[in-house]
Design a protein that fits this description.
Blueprint lengths: L1 E7 L1 H4 L16 H9 L3 E7 L19 H12 L4 E5 L13 H18 L9 E6 L5 H7 L6 H20 L3 E4 L14 H18 L1
Length: 212
């Protein structure tokens, strides 16, 4: 059985746009649609966490442990053996509070996600492949009105620029690459619609079949 770890934030968790932390169910969220598409010879492992960043620590009470880097290596060990890790992070990193440029975020992805995965020696994973996905474009106006100033038009611009830096980081490190930049978001300007979950699952399915 081929094992695929999907490591991401609320759009991997399946957060429903505009809701109060409600989640798409197993028939809707992209990780589970991907599982159905791939069939019983594959195991899709969901590791989506609301507010997960690449490296930054969320200062809000109850938001401890949101750094993707801090949890990454224990997560790899926990789910070993693995054939592919799909990484879709960066949306939370463009928040106003973190004050990071798009290039800084790209460097963080390379140095704190890609390189640690590539350097990790797992006991049972012999040829672990990495698939990097640029996340959705943030709608700065909608996100600002729905998330109390956590995002703005600068966040939107940065989210678009991530595509360039993520693609370059993937290429430099021999990773596979996809972009979800133009996938539709819902009423909060950040989270995927149900249709986008299906479209993302279909795109990732095709790439995984190419890889494996």
């Amino acid at each position: 059985m081929k094992r695929i770890l999907c490591y991401g934030d609320s759009n991997t968790y399946g957060y429903i746009s505009g809701s109060d932390h409600k989640r798409f169910d197993e028939n809707q969220r992209w990780t589970q649609v991907l599982q159905r598409n791939l069939g019983n010879d594959y195991c899709v492992i969901e590791e989506g966490l609301n507010s997960r960043t690449i490296l930054s620590n969320d200062p809000r009470p109850g938001k401890e442990g949101r750094s993707g880097y801090d949890y990454l290596l224990p997560c790899l060990d926990s789910h070993d053996p693995l054939d592919i890790i799909v990484v879709m992070l960066g949306t939370n990193e463009v928040k106003v509070r973190y004050d990071k440029s798009s290039k800084e975020i790209g460097d963080m992805l390379e140095n704190y996600i890609i390189k640690p995965i590539k350097s990790r020696v797992l006991h049972n994973s012999t040829n672990l492949q990495i698939l990097i996905i640029t996340p959705v474009k943030v709608n700065g106006k909608l996100a600002n009105s729905n998330f109390e100033g956590k995002y703005d038009k600068t966040s939107e611009r940065k989210s678009v620029q991530l595509e360039k830096y993520f693609r370059e980081a993937a290429k430099r490190n021999g990773c596979h690459y996809l972009s979800a930049l133009n996938f539709e978001t819902g009423i909060d300007g950040v989270h995927l619609t149900e249709a986008s979950h299906k479209n993302l699952a279909d795109m990732v399915y095709k790439k995984i079949k190419e890889i494996l």
